């Protein structure tokens, strides 16, 4: 993947150090070509990645009209764009040049017709204006920083943190919501007050005047803006299968060489693995599930499905070796890297490192399916989207064979409207949280002002996507992929697939005959029977692993003590109650529920430590790599 960065600075001091900080933290994103430029109060640079031997690698900094551009792009509909731009010799043009040509000739709104993972920035030297843009679903990250003197952007957020005099104050509302168990999703906000994301499916202009820097967003696409109605169930299923298959194929066509893939045993990763294999590409596959050598296979075990897929497709899958590593690893080894505070960091790091060691350039993941494509539709969703007849019919089907069927159906309908409806519409809250470990004054202040979110995941996938539901994984996959030299690809986040999936009748997903109905029917002929029969994946190999010969209470207390040594009390005194943190322990007689709850609190405190380390160490790390 390519790393792009740049800035404008109102002053002469620190510009070279700013460029150096951004440059260093983006180096891991591409090693094909590199270039930086510093001129008249602004700088930019790019570290290029090159995935395909069929197309050239473009120049890191491109010239355009009255300025220059840096672009990170993998384009999946090259032929279509070449026709639009009347380019006859497509193999002589890089993806970055194609994208810039589209913008130059057709305007930024034409990005709506570009199928790809991309982000970029164009600087107009005459007007001193930056224009930043991103792909439809925000697969490629692009962060920016603004204060009174500086505007800067970077593929890697740590580059912004490393700039001299960066203001890395905590985003208090997002921090509170996260720690208190509420949803903290956002398309644009980050854990730091002065750092944001360029919105997906948009271009953003940044202008400078005597008072500072000002941004304006321009949206070029939103999912589900036009309802799609076809003639039959079979037509819906065929269209969904065709779109998903093409989303996998066009991504395979964009890269030469060996393919890596994640295989979890769920519907999404399984379908992608099968399609990769049947489209004729050699792959290596990695599962986050624990190896059967570490944990025997259990009832309703996701690894049974993995075994069936491997047997059916004549492939192998590498299981994680993480249990031994994690339980032997001290907490400071987890905290030592300057990681952005995201979820699944260790899993993504191990998986991408192993797949890179096997020779893969890219990793295909099933992430994004749950967001809309293989959506687990709640019955209330039918009512919410005004599909009243389908709502009643689906509930009626569920009462088949029951005594007093009509009465039971009426009671189920009433329950959906009186109980389920209010529960889904109220702000999301998780009982596994660290609210009791927050500073009392901070907690009371934020309880009054924080905007608590309804979580749309269960009944409005388009709204959930616009809420920022995909960012949890895509941002971290970009970071961990870069750290290990691979790029993650998300076929289910192909904007054509997403738009179709959220625009069709919701009854296609929930018709009383089983959830994810259209998706299951679309791929029924290629998935193994064990996957057809699986309606809920509890991943027992992940949940039920308990290391032999480890005193969990002693291990937990050592982790808490080490974390207390690590946390900067002066930095956190406004936000954390250190008396409560010091009292975090497991009772002598504890249940696994007690352990899980205490571990959830510990994970939130580790999140604090990661926030602290990134803000405090990103710049020092750059100085060490002069």
Provide a descriptive summary of the structure in words.
Helix content is 43%, strand content 15%. Mean pLDDT is 91; it is low at 323-328. The strands form 3 sheets. Strands 2-3-1-9-8-10 form a 6-stranded antiparallel beta sheet. It has a 6-stranded antiparallel beta sheet with strand order 4-5-6-7-11-12, covered by helices on one side. It is an alpha+beta fold and 626 residues long.
Share of residues in helices: 40-55%
- Write down how many β-strands occur, each being a DSSP E stretch of 2 or more residues: 17
Principal-axes geometry comes out as: globular
Briefly note the structural class of the backbone: alpha+beta
Cα-atom Rg, whole angstroms?
25 Å
- Tell me the major beta sheet: 6 strands, antiparallel
User: How much β-strand is present in the residues?
Assistant: 15-25%
- Give the low-pLDDT segments: 323-328
Give the N-terminus to C-terminus distance in angstroms: 23 Å
Widest sheet: strand ordering: 2-3-1-9-8-10
How many helices? The count is 26
Question: What is the averaged pLDDT score?
Answer: 91
């Amino acid at each position: 993947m390519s790393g792009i960065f740049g800035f404008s600075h109102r002053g002469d001091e620190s510009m070279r150090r700013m460029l150096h900080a951004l440059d260093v933290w983006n180096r891991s994103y591409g090693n094909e070509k590199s270039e930086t430029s510093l001129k008249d109060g602004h700088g930019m640079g790019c570290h290029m990645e090159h995935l395909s031997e069929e197309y050239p690698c473009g120049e890191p900094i491109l010239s355009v009209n009255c300025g220059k551009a840096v672009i990170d792009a993998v384009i999946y509909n090259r032929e279509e764009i070449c026709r639009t731009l009347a380019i006859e010799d497509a193999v002589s043009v890089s993806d970055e040049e194609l994208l810039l040509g589209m913008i130059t000739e057709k305007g930024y709104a034409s990005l709506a017709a570009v199928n790809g993972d991309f982000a970029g920035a164009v600087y107009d030297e005459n007007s001193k204006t930056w224009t930043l843009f991103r792909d439809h679903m925000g697969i490629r990250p692009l962060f920016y920083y603004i204060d009174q003197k500086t505007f800067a952007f970077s593929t890697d957020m740590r580059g912004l943190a490393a700039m001299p005099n960066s203001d890395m104050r905590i985003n208090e509302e997002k921090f509170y919501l996260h720690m208190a168990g509420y949803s903290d999703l956002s398309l644009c906000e980050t854990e730091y007050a002065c750092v944001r994301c360029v919105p997906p499916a948009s271009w953003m202009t940044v202008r400078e005047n005597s008072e500072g820097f000002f941004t304006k967003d321009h949206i070029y696409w939103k999912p589900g803006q036009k309802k799609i109605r076809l003639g039959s169930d079979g037509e819906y299923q065929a269209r969904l299968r065709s779109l998903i298959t093409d989303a996998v194929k066009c991504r395979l066509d964009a890269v030469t060489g060996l393919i890596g893939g994640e295989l979890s045993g769920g519907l999404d990763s399984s379908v992608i693995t099968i399609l990769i294999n049947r489209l004729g590409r050699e792959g290596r596959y990695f599962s986050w599930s624990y190896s059967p050598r570490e944990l025997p296979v259990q009832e309703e075990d996701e690894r049974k499905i993995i075994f069936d897929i491997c047997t059916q497709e004549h492939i192998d899958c590498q299981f994680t070796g993480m249990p031994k590593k994690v339980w032997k690893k001290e907490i400071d080894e987890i905290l030592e890297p300057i990681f952005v505070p995201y979820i699944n960091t260790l899993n993504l790091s191990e998986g991408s490192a192993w797949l890179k060691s096997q020779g893969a350039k890219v990793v295909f993941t099933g992430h994004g399916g749950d967001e809309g494509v293989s959506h687990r539709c709640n019955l209330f969703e039918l009512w919410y989207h005004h599909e009243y007849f389908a709502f009643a019919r689906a509930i009626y089907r569920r009462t088949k064979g029951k005594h007093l069927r009509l009465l039971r159906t009426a009671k189920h309908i009433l329950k959906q409207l009186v109980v389920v409806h209010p529960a889904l519409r109220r702000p999301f809250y998780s009982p596994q949280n660290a609210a009791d470990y927050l500073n009392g004054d901070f907690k009371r202040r934020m309880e009054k002002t924080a905007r608590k979110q309804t979580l749309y995941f269960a009944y409005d996938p388009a709204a959930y996507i616009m809420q920022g539901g995909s960012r949890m994984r895509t941002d971290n996959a970009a970071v961990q992929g870069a750290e290990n030299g691979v790029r993650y690809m998300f076929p289910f986040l192909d904007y054509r697939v997403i738009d179709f999936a959220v625009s069709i009748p919701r009854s296609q997903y929930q018709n009383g005959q089983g959830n994810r109905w259209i998706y299951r029917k679309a791929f029924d002929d290629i998935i193994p029977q064990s996957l057809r029969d699986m309606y809920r994946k509890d991943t027992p190999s992940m949940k039920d692993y308990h290391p032999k010969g480890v005193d969990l209470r002693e291990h937990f207390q050592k982790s808490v003590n080490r974390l207390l040594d690590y946390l900067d009390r002066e930095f956190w005194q406004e936000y954390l109650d250190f008396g409560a943190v010091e009292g975090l322990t497991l009772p002598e007689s504890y249940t696994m529920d007690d352990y899980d709850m205490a571990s959830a609190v510990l994970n939130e405190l580790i999140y604090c430590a990661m926030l602290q380390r990134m803000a405090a160490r990103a710049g020092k790390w750059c100085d060490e790599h002069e």
